[in-house]
Specification:
Elements: E1 3-10, H1 14-30, E2 36-40, H2 45-51, H3 57-64, E3 68-73, H4 88-98, E4 103-109, H5 122-125, E5 129-135, E6 147-150, E7 156-159, H6 166-181, E8 186-191, H7 197-210, E9 217-222, H8 223-232, E10 239-242, H9 244-257, E11 265-269, E12 275-279, H10 296-308, H11 313-328, E13 331-332, E14 342-343, H12 346-361
Parallel strand pairs: 1-2, 1-3, 3-12, 5-10, 8-9, 8-10, 13-14
Antiparallel strand pairs: 4-5, 4-11, 6-7, 11-12
Helix pairs in contact: 1-10, 1-12, 6-7, 8-9, 10-11, 11-12
Bound molecules: nicotinamide-adenine-dinucleotide (NAD).
Length: 362
Amino acid sequence: MTKKILILPGDGIGPEIVAQAEKVLAFLINERGFDLEIEHGLLGGSAVDATGSPFPDETLNQAKSAAAILLGAVGGPKWESIERSIRPERGLLGIRSSLELFANLRPAVLFPQLAEASTLKEEVVSDLDIMFVRELTGGIYFGEPRGIKTLDDGQRQGFNTLVYSESEIERIARTAFDVASKRQGRVCSVDKANVLEATELWREVVSSVAKDYPDVELQHMYVDNAAMQLVRAPKQFDVIVTTNMFGDILSDLASMLTGSIGMLPSASLASDGSGMYEPSHGSAPDIAGQNIANPLATILSLSMLLRYSLSEVQAADQIEQAVSQVLSDGFRTKDIHSDGMNCVGTNEMGDAVVKALSSIVN
Ligand code: NAD
């Protein structure tokens, strides 16, 4: 049966980088005969402009009937001062929660060809391969009550709520242990259990899930120490499982260990295996429309889509090989460029990956 892939280009550099991943998809459909149907939809600022909502009902219906979703990124200065409830980021949170995409997998992998691009010493980061498993639909980003209110003395007070139920913690912990059992078998659970009761419960539930995975080693770490260890000795980690906000911050930190946020894909999975795939970076409005954005994170997100939602493991491996090949051939976008390399634009990088893929496949 034909499977539908929903493409949501989004805002800023979103359309440019997604177009490169679509070239790879077109290659798989036209040259390899993959039975896939592509549909496009609106999310974020572009959806606000077209419909008044960052997550229109039409997009929800498209998403529900898709086997998987490929997203660019949303947001930008144009929509920063509009009413909070219709800001682009609300569209993102809306689609994640509507589809119950509770598990965000963010690999931080350093391609050896880019060891120089890291801000850390080569021996600290070479062969780095960490998988972040971030809880995505709970915690302080969704907790109620939230808002900004005016106090009796006239000053305003902002407030949010950090809340996690046992079942939310248990399902993300199971995802992390499942992932670790196919890797090096080590999970580090990051919390702030010494200060926050919600993460005291987090620690308790993760420890109890660990009993079902005797072959996986569990370690607990406070988030402040984890931030320090990620910079000091990042190779000690295999899988890191953590809350929505801690995962947001720590995975961005880890992304810089790999040289550029433009290299890092992500997968957001539901319990039925469907998912939304997107680069870990934002819409980079500062470089939008200039053909300089790095499309590799988006192309690697497509690879994750094939691996996790379509079980096309071989094609996923081949895309990763093609990315590695173009880096070995010296192709670099501006964000990862160094002396002696071939500085190319977004489009040219996409073309180079398709060319490398075609020589790997044929
Ligand atoms: P950002 O990730 O968009 O950009 C941070 C820096 O990284 C910028 O200098 C940018 O030029 C650079 N960068 C990002 N992606 C790149 C790429 N592919 N190639 C080369 N350089 C790249 O983060 P920001 O500036 O904090 O946010 C910009 C907008 O994106 C905001 O509106 C924010 O809300 C939104 N955002 C969206 C998502 C998402 O859609 N998932 C995630 C984060 C931020």
